[in-house]
Amino acid sequence: MSNTPEATVDKPYRIQTAAGYRKYLCSGLYLPSVTTVLSATESEKSKAGLRTWQANNPGALEEASTRGSAIHLACENYLRGLPPGVPDQYQDFWNGISQYLDWFDVLHWSERPLRPDWNHLRSDDREVAYVWSTEHRYAGCPDLVGEVGGVRVIADFKTSNAPYCSQFPQRGDRIGFGGFRKYTKCAQQLAAYRLALEERTGYHCDVALIIVSTPETTQGIFIDGDQLDLHESRFLKRAEQFHNIAGNNEVEDSSSQGVQEQNEPAESSEGLAEYQ
Question: Looking at residue 61, what is its pLDDT?
Fold first, then answer.
């Protein structure tokens, strides 16, 4: 990043801490990723439920992450006019996505900036790109920023075994509740990206779009500005909570040692395997 102090030039731009937190080097500080903040501030009940699900479904988390990375790459290729290159085993998750990508008249960001005045959001080695908030101390990589009929849209791609649900489900609807939980988490994620992007560039997104692919269907869920403001306030409370937890600010200063360089896929493919 062009505003990174000279003393940090040789530091990795993306790391994973001893606690498993993904952090990005921004303005001389290692800031936690948006999904790290969201995962770390889940309720203890939710964390316990995820641990139980992982124990009962060995390998499922890794498989979902691999699937999500494949679909993200396919979306990126498609938007650049290249063959999507979707592996056969994930073809069902790709079918139907392109219709939503075709909505975009203008593209400003697809995993990385596509306009020169945003190149300061790329690391100096050009390997990663992300937005960040120095005020609220977090960072992350949006999937897509563009315009649909003049409306500024920030979008995220998700793969799931069941649909997302933007309305609170009826009592006893476990699948619906799972879909609503994933929707609210993604909505907060997009609201956080929107705020950080505006802080870094002055570009304000009017709405957000969640593109969800399942083996049976594909969804395009819009979130209007008022709802994004609500999700933003909820995320900022969680960011404050994260930084108030003892130990979560480890290696906040980029001069600290004892971290490993993060060579995993960018944040957009992190946290894709919400348990069903």
Answer: 85
The answer to whether residue 276 is domain-embedded is: no
Q: What is the CATH number of the domain that holds 20?
A: 3.90.320
Is residue 76 domain-resident? yes
Number of domains in the chain: 1
CA-nearest of 97, 115, 122, 124 to 212 is 97
Give a yes or no: residue 236 inside a domain: yes
Residue 136: inside a domain:
yes
Closest by CA to 147, choosing from 200, 196, 209, is: 209
C-alpha closest to that of 213 among 168, 166, 265, 156: 156
SS3 state of residue 152: strand
Domain encompassing residue 81: 6-269
pTM strictly above 0.85: yes
Asked if the model's pLDDT at residue 207 lies above 60, the reply is yes
Could you report the per-residue pLDDT of 155-205, keeping only the tens digit for each?
Answer: 999 999 999 999 988 888 888 888 999 999 999 999 999 999 999 999 999
For residues 10 and 144, what is the distance between their CA atoms, to the nearest angstrom? 29
Q: What pLDDT does residue 124 have?
A: 81
